[in-house]
Amino acid sequence: MISIAVILLLQVYSAQCMVSSGRAGHGFVGYGISMYDPNCAYSCRSAISSSALNCSTYADGAEVADMAGMSGMGAASTSGGCYATDDTFLQTLAYCISTRCDGKVAVYRLEKWWLRNVAGTKEVQPDPKYSYQQALARVTEPPTTTLVSGDPLNKTSLVKDADYIAVFNAQEIFEAQEVLYEKYGQAILIPKIYTANGKHDELLTYVSNRIGVLSFANLPLIFLYAGRNNVLLWLTNWSHSTFILLHRWIAYISTLQACIHSAVWLQNYVATGSHTTESKLQYWFWGIIATLSMSILLPSSIIPIRQKAYEVFLLWHISLSVLVIAGCYLHIYYRFENQWGYELWILITIAIWGFDRVMRILRVARNGICTAQITTIDEDYIRIDIKGVASGVGHAYLYFPTLTWRVWENHPFSVASTLLPALEDSASLKKASESDLESDRARTSDKASPSDQDIDIKEISSGSSNKSNHLRLPPSLALSFFVRARSGLTTQFPANGSIPVLVESIYGTNEDLSGYPSLICIAGGVGVTAIMPYLQSHPGSKKLYWGVRNAGIVKTLESSFHGIDKEVFVGTKMVIKDVLEDALANASPDGAAVVVSGPSCMADEVRVLVSQIGARGGRSNIKLVEESFTW
Fold first, then answer.
1. How many separate domains does the chain show?
2. pLDDT tens digit string along 422-477?
3. How far is it, in rounded angstroms, from Cα 5 to Cα 16?
4. Is residue 174 domain-shared with residue 252, that is, in the same domain?
5. Domain co-membership, 393 together with 327
6. For the region Disordered, what residue ranges are annotated (predicted)?
7. Do 537 and 432 fall into the same domain?
8. 30, 68, 197, 535: which one has the fewest Cβ atoms less than 10 Å from its Cβ?
């Protein structure tokens, strides 16, 4: 009795251990897809179908099983045509359904199930010889013989209660678990009716399957959080850097889940001796490709690689991601033929990726082909002005297709200004700028000590403001960006001139810090451009602390900081600890906001110091905002 129950239950779950063919479903299990509805009818058929029929065929020494999970385990192979025409099978099944489904399921639903499932679950299959009611009418007297599961079925028989209940409970609980998983997105292991010798393998199977589906469910989030057009950016007002961090961690989790899923099934197949057969199937092949691609993505995305060879990393990252998505989809397709809706996680992922790419194209197309005016400020910094592009605060991605064969290459830059003071000619500007820089260097070199080099903007710009006034005309609509020329694409800009540019804008918004009476801004180099909107819009007291290598960019941005209290550190190290302690000590007791934008080391230091100073002073009303682009 116990061994037969185990065989019946293993039969139900055999569809989870090999390729399963059947009708394509639409939706998720419980949301458009029903696995066993009505379960009483499915359970009757499962309990009977392990028996050979008069029209079954045999293969010596072979164990033949219906891939849809409808046939039992044995040496007989039963075709759909055999099921559809065998009187004994049809009458036994009809009588079982009438006794088990009586009063629970409407007759029209039983007729519908009968027509679709008696012969099997394939898309195209023969219709049964009789309808459900016709087959039942042929049972003129209640059967007296009880079918022993696995024995040949050669006369109309009763289905043993133990066999029926074992299959019914297994199927009901399995589907209930699938519905709960799809609803809550997490593995829920429900106690099942199983004998002791089946618990270990059954538990491993369910853990592996649930982890595998969880890995799938994480894929849409991975792609959503990496995208520029992430709807959650608009709903939460979190920074893109925050979502990139979440993108990484969810990718770690999803990869670990995929590895566990693969490892458990590998162990299962090796232990049961089926690895040689299964590993030759296409679903196995594509599953391995997906898991390996995910595993390679992690070590190839470490910070040193991203920093030293970002464009190579990006191309490699996208290529492997395509393999992951293709591998996952084909793994499910060749495994289940889209019966149970697992492929929808992949389709959602593709839709998210496609939406982001389409939105990028539309944003670029809206601005068309523009012209970027390049002006060299000094040996470190470059100014980029793009006339005629309407935008707000935030950042934009710029493409310079004539500078590289990688026409898709683009980089994010903070918008420093949306109004451009028109200049008579770039040569005059360059000459005046070089003259002013020489004057500034002369004054700076006369300082007695490094501390004397903490120059206020007014000091370094007052001597030259009158000289450049004759060059300025009324401002025009434009986007202005400031770039530090380090390596890669930025080193290919012309010293002064114009080049074609594509503008993908505008992204990002600034947090509303008006509820904090005091605003403290810490900036490093061109990071000041991300802070400018906060300084220009904040209604309370505000102060800027800005560390910069050369005075050229300070002079260029002079008018943008008019009337703002500031300390500028040119060519000397800004001691952030002293700056923050002094600023927070003088800040309003009703609340202060600290905004930092600059190198990652600066942001890290500010984050630690704000926490320490706030804890030491017992202040919980300090807000920290980091403005940065990180990958």
1. 4
2. 433 444 444 444 444 444 443 333 333 333 333 343 333 333 333 333 344 455 67
3. 18
4. no
5. no
6. 434-470
7. no
8. 197
